[in-house]
Amino acid sequence: MVNTVPGFKRLYDLKLTHVQAIELLRCLCQQISTLSESEFEKTGIQKALFDAIEHGIVELIVELIKQYPDIVWREDKSQRGIFLCATLHRQEKIFNLIYRMGAKKNAMATPWDVNHNNILHQAAFLAPLSQLDRVTGAALQMQRELQWYKEVESIVQPKQREMRNLSHDTPRTLFTKEHRGLVEEGEKWMKETATSCTVVAALIATIMFSALFTLPGGFDQYTGLPLFLHRSSFIAYIVSDAVSLFSSTSSMLMFLGMLTSRYREEDFLRSLPMKLIIGLSTLFFSMATMMMTFGVALMIFLKERFDWVSFPIMLLASVPVTLFALLQFPLLVDIFLSTYGPGIFDKPNKRGRFL
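^ that's the sequence the OP posted. Answer follows.
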């Protein structure tokens, strides 16, 4: 039955191919574990190992470690081990295996390469372009780089944080040098986004503020109270107008905070993304309530004469809100998940250890 549906058949074939590839890999790894040192050198397995690390083929690494545990001590031509290479190439799935090394975890994070770059130095180098392009925008790329650096920093010994390579750079100094251009690009992207959104938020705030003094129906010339004060739709108008005004003002303040930020490296980790999340969320909310205010005002004017007008007005008012959501929500979701999501690194646990 599965084979009769084209979409399911394709998925089934892909899954079957993957399972067969894993079985073939497992058989090959079992054969590798029986090889002598000289035979191992001749097979080219070591080159395949580091090619797999560079391209993030975690299944191969896992099977090799299971069948041949000593392979974790292998090094490439630059004397970088598995986890130094995984850090340099930003392959988080392979790096996460370090938490399954048990007592050997600290030893895995201690070595350095031919240039005396330890694992924290590897995290300080700018990520390969192929890995940077997986993240949207220079600001989020900088955030991801900081997340990598902080994660690696949390597993190394204190003396490694101050260790100098052959160029006399500590990991932090190297990080600053390598990411100077990315910080500038991130600052430019953030400021351009904040400037555009500040203009929109200011326009909405201006419109909503003036709408409070030009109420539908006007005011009673004797009491000074709004003529439609007794209508529930008028209360909805006032509430939506006030909410839109408060939201747009909050959005404007968040974006102004971004424009006046010092743009230190650390700001890209939490501070700036948080401001952008709040700014975009409140801007969307202010736009939605602004269109609601407009729709309610039209209904107040027209409902007594045209009862059918409510639905089409609300339908049309939802169009710009929907367009804004479609354009901005993917970015907002990316920022939120990158900042407050589960992250790309597995938390240390006692299950699934190799050694």
